[in-house]
């Protein structure tokens, strides 16, 4: 049966991250993608130049329009900037109670543009973390959520424990910012599982976090366990990065349709 996936995130005008990356990822996983846009960004491969937030009322109306008509098998949450928007989303999710919620706590763009207002971080922790099936922070985001510093692999477990104590059912702490390794840690409050990270020599990694979290939502909706979903999604993203697209003059996007292009004989 075709699974229905909903992304609640910001729009990326260059198509490499945000809503656009999410919908491409959903399609690549054989699922039907739907969207709730929380903000419109003016951005390209070089960075973000402007953000226009969508009002909480319109965000809430978008969520209701989808859930009142269509069954939703999983929700992926990406860029959120304002406390009012976060509260509106949390209230809607408590009302509709989707079985799977993957929260990607997007705080800063790859180019350094702040996407989550500082005062909104506490709201995200209080309102959305307790609803999350899985939260997928990179190390700077994990530090912001936990209030703890992470510079070594050994420090990732205590940070994961802290995030679980704040209400998330499971957390995938991404180790890509470590200097000596890129391993990721999956922790559900009881069991820790490590996933080896592969560093690929490319600058075309725009939208990697969005793509991973959307892949995780799709794989969980299709019935995979957390560990199975992480394994499959990391493999998908690694392949997408390895075939990243040299688009624009900055960091190009990952390639969401490697398998499709390969089957069609279109890979360069």
Overview of the structural elements:
With 268 residues, the chain is of the alpha/beta class. 38% of the residues lie in helices and 18% in strands. The protein has helices at residues 18-28, 56-67, 83-96, 118-127, 139-146, 156-165, 208-221, 226-242, 258-263; strands spanning 4-12, 32-44, 47-53, 74-77, 101-103, 134-135, 171-173, 184-187, 192-195. Strands 3-2-1-4-5-6 form a 6-stranded mixed β-sheet. Strand 5, helix 4 and strand 6 (134-135) form a beta-alpha-beta unit. The chain is globular, with a radius of gyration of 17 Å. The relative contact order is 0.15. The model has no long low-confidence stretch (mean pLDDT 92).
| Biggest sheet: strand arrangement | 3-2-1-4-5-6
Q: How many strands, what sense, and barrel or not for the largest sheet?
A: 6 strands, mixed
**In terms of structural class, how would the helical and strand content be classed?**
alpha/beta
Contiguous uncertain segments of 5+ residues: none
Can you write the helix and strand succession as a string? EHEEHEHEHEHHEEEHHH
- Tell me the radius of gyration: 17 Å
Specify the number of helices.
9
DSSP strand content: 15-25%
Question: How far apart lie the N and C ends?
Answer: 33 Å
Helix residue percentage: 25-40%
Can you give the mean pLDDT? 92
Gross morphology: globular
The count of DSSP E runs of length 2 or more, i.e. the number of strands, is 9
């Amino acid at each position: 049966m075709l699974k229905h996936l909903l992304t609640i995130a910001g729009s990326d005008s260059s198509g490499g991250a945000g809503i656009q990356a999410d919908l491409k990822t959903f399609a690549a996983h054989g699922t039907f993608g739907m969207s709730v846009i929380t903000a419109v960004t003016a951005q390209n491969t070089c960075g973000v130049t402007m953000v226009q937030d969508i009002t909480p009322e319109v965000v809430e109306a978008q969520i209701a329009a989808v859930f009142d008509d269509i069954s939703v098998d999983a929700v992926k949450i990406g860029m959120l900037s304002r406390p009012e928007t976060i509260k509106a989303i949390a209230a809607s999710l408590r009302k509709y109670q989707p079985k799977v919620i993957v929260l990607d706590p997007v705080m800063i763009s790859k180019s350094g543009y702040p996407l989550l207002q500082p005062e909104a971080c506490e709201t995200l922790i209080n309102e959305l973390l307790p609803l999350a099936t899985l939260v997928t922070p990179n190390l700077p985001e994990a530090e912001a959520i936990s209030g703890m510093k992470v510079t070594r692999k050994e420090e990732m477990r205590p940070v994961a424990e802290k995030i679980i104590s704040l209400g998330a059912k499971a957390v995938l702490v991404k180790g890509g910012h470590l200097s000596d390794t890129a391993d990721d840690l999956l922790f559900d409050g009881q069991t820790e599982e490590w996933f080896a990270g592969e560093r690929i020599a490319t600058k075309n990694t725009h939208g990697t976090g969005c793509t991973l979290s959307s892949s995780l939502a799709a794989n969980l909706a299709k019935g995979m366990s957390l560990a199975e979903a992480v394994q499959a999604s990391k493999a998908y993203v690694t392949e997408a990065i390895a075939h990243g697209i040299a688009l624009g003059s900055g960091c190009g996007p990952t390639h969401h349709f490697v398998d499709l292009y390969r089957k069609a004989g279109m890979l360069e």
